[in-house]
Design goal:
This protein has 20 helices and 4 strands. It is mainly alpha-helical. It has one domain. The chain has a two-stranded antiparallel sheet. The model has no long low-confidence stretch (mean pLDDT 86).
Length: 467
């Protein structure tokens, strides 16, 4: 009886998608049912209506677990950001309707179809997470609480230069990304531990390395690292300083969404294309973002419509596959396994970027002669493989793998703080966004290897000890 009850609760996650599918001939109604369906899924899962949330920690103290953070960032970005694009299709600009605007029915149909896939993918991903979610884990290892601050302090110091070393080694740059992310998480988590304990040395050192990572994010020319840098520090501080985080970090994030379109645009034009000095470009971009004035509304709306969401590109893939290009079936999976071997062992290995971009060119998303990287998102590759069934199966696997690795990390590193908050969030940040099959499989496999090696090192150092 209980199994049937659980099964019926899981079916509830798919009700919005089913209703939106029934009303597919009414694109706007279908779109909004699918779009609101993701908020329904958030409510049902984050309140424990489908499967109760783990009771070993408070909600604020387990935010970094996949059922909360991975779902909010990955599904939130994937499913909820398309509203501005759809509003533009309905004739809105800067939230005001354009008089006598005639919507393109074909574009409305395509956008609604993609939103239905988003809703299906969200339901499938969270189904995978909830199906294997088992907390608390039977303790296998433990970490003495008094060792945590010191460990985070030394991890902050050593991981940053280690990432630089890997960056200089031919064929091992993927490990540089992993340890760079781990360094950032260690510095942010170290600050969250040191500030309440008022350990001045720890605070200063962790802040210096956090600032270095933040500067690297500012100079990258991408919005996501900057936003994540601020958001993650706020999430780590939230359990102790709830009111301060809400009063400070939430407004800061809103301001970032307003100024980053201009800032990133200047960075890319002058640093990527113009080849100017990064420090000078960063300063120039900041000045432009702060003084954008009258153009703020236009640049922000253009960002919300065209670059915040990836639904515009998704519609191009749905329009071309399988109508013009057949489904790829297992081809993308095969290519993903091809790129697993590091280039240091296979110098002639195909360039991953070129492999991925080929299907972008084939679908006509961008021109082969343009200087643009428009790699398909994970859900797009899922669709390109088998259509709707691909979205369901691969997003379900996505949830299962993310949750299983998080639980394994907590088992290996003595619990949530080191396991999920540091190691899982540091080595497997790719789950927050979800890139193309080739990039995500490569990152997850080698991240898992790094996690096992790190666990063994910490056991040898008697930081992590048998329970």
């Amino acid at each position: 009886m209980n199994r049937n009850l659980v099964f019926e609760k899981f079916i509830l996650l798919y009700v919005p998608w089913i209703i939106s599918l029934i009303f597919a001939s009414y694109p706007t109604f279908s779109y909004f049912i699918a779009w609101l369906g993701s908020f329904f899924i958030f409510f049902m899962t984050l309140t424990g209506q489908i499967v109760p949330l783990p009771d070993d920690r408070s909600f604020a103290d387990q935010i970094m677990r996949p059922v909360i953070l991975v779902q909010i960032i990955f599904a939130g970005y994937m499913c909820c950001t398309s509203i501005f694009y759809y509003m533009s299709l309905l004739g809105y600009s800067n939230f005001e309707h354009i008089p006598f605007f005639l919507p393109d029915t074909a574009k409305l149909q395509l956008a609604a179809k993609c939103q239905r896939y988003y809703c299906l993918g969200h339901a499938a991903m969270i189904s995978g997470i909830l199906l294997v979610m088992r907390y608390p884990n039977e303790p296998k290892y433990k970490v003495q609480p008094e060792k945590l601050s010191k460990l985070l302090y030394y991890a902050t110091i050593f991981l940053f230069p280690l990432a630089i070393v890997f960056l200089k080694l031919p064929g091992l740059s993927q490990f540089a990304n992993q340890f760079g992310s781990l360094s950032f998480m260690a510095s942010a988590l170290g600050l969250a531990f040191a500030i309440p304990q008022k350990k001045v040395t720890y605070i200063v050192v962790c802040f210096i390395f956090y600032a270095l990572n933040f500067y690297a994010a500012m100079a990258s020319g991408f919005k996501e690292p900057i936003i994540l840098s601020v958001m993650i520090l706020g999430l780590f501080l939230y359990p102790v300083y709830k009111k301060i985080v809400l009063l400070v970090f939430v407004p800061v994030l809103l301001v970032l969404f307003l100024v980053l379109p201009t800032y990133v645009s200047v960075i890319r034009q002058n640093s990527w294309i113009g080849g100017e000095d990064p420090d000078a470009v960063t300063s120039e971009a900041l000045d432009a973002a702060i003084s954008q004035g009258a153009n703020a509304d236009e640049s922000t709306w253009a960002f919300l419509v065209g670059r915040l969401s990836e639904i515009d590109m998704f519609t191009s893939y749905v329009e071309s596959t399988p109508k013009k290009i057949n489904y790829y079936h297992f081809e993308l999976v095969k290519q993903s396994f091809m790129v697993l071997l590091p280039r240091i062992f296979w110098p002639s290995k195909p360039v991953t970027e070129q492999m991925v971009m080929q299907r972008v060119y084939d679908a006509g998303v961008v021109s082969p002669y343009s200087n643009v990287s428009a790699k398909p998102a994970y859900i797009v590759d899922s669709y390109l493989s088998w259509g709707g069934w691909g979205v369901f199966v691969f997003l379900f696997i996505y949830g299962v793998v993310a949750q299983s690795i998080s639980q394994k990390a907590e088992l290996l590193f003595g619990g949530y703080t080191l396991g999920t908050a540091l190691v899982f969030s540091g080595l497997f940040q790719i789950f927050w966004r979800g890139l193309s099959f080739e990039f995500i499989l490569n990152s997850v496999v080698w991240g898992y290897v790094s996690m096992l090696i790190l666990a063994r090192i910490l056991r040898r150092m008697h930081i992590v000890e048998p329970a």
